[in-house]
Amino acid sequence: MMFTLTHGLPRAGRTLSQCLPKLAAVLLASALGAAQAAAPAPASAPLKTAFVYVTPVLDAGWTRQHEEGRKALQAALGSKVQTVAVDNVAEGADAERVLRDLAASGNKLIFTTSFGYMEPTLKVARDFPDVKFENLTGYKRTENVATANARHYEGRYLSGIAAARASKTGVAGFVVGFPIPEVLQGINAFALGMRSVNPKAQVRVIWLNNWFDPPRERDAAMTLFNQDVDVVAFQVASTAVMQAAQERGKMAIAFHSDMRKVAPDAQLLAVTHRWGKYYEQRARAVLDGTWKSQDFWGGVKDGMVGVEGFGPRLPKAAREEVLLREQQMAKGQLAPFAAGKQPVRDNQGQVRIPAGKALTDAQILEMNWLAEGVVGTLPR
Prior knowledge:
There is one protein chain. This protein is an alpha/beta fold. The chain is 38% helix and 21% strand.
């Protein structure tokens, strides 16, 4: 008896015994295909995401806030992401080495959380075009390098109001790292906030040319306290200034994090920033293929900057005033770098914001002057 095999059936000229091996193979392939169709699709690999920090991860401060943001990202996306952080990475050659290692090990999204990482980030990004980089506080972008920052100056203005309400001398201090635009924005906004309450208020500044040097941060605060300063702010990475204020019985504005744990009596309030939402949005953009290089600048209205952690030495009326101003800022009704009927001048007497005008974002980002009431000059 002869059969014909078409798509697995016997074909004329072959015996059944000759056709059986092929028939068995066809049946096996069909069964395997059905099993594969029924099996769930393999889970996609998680998005490997890395963070680079300029200081150790302390209990509070700049790096702590980014670490909290990393944790928030991991909690929000779960198995869709795999995060890792490398802390205490010096800006410069060390940063470039760390970034190359992270990119080469399969991380497809890398956040570099310091202004000084900008050039190393750009250099490494050129060699890894398939990796997305996000440089925080930098300003140079490429196709695979985005930038982001928080409008810290908005919180600084609010804290200046609180400082003026609490100060007995009308003189505040400010301990800072480097004279980059972000720092100048903070000093000037703080001074303008103080002078909106007390037009004669002064802000004395000490430059450290370092972001993280706790002994020198403490010494700078102590020096300011010896110069009629009774409330101090700072833009450096540790809690040393807060601890100095607590020790001397003075007042301080916490920055980055709520620092009442180390300065329960000294803290008037904290200017904080929160990164989790931004990190989540950018990771989702990589996962769904919509990530694009951009410059994001989030403030009070975005929930990225806020004031919290009010301390016992700030009067209730002052607290309510600050919170009211924060609400006005969120609604676009209050801008720190907008002049009223009088122009805003620098501490050399030059008009920087004409009466009735406001600085544009571009002008704020290029700030290179100190406001009237700030005592000191820019370091060379």
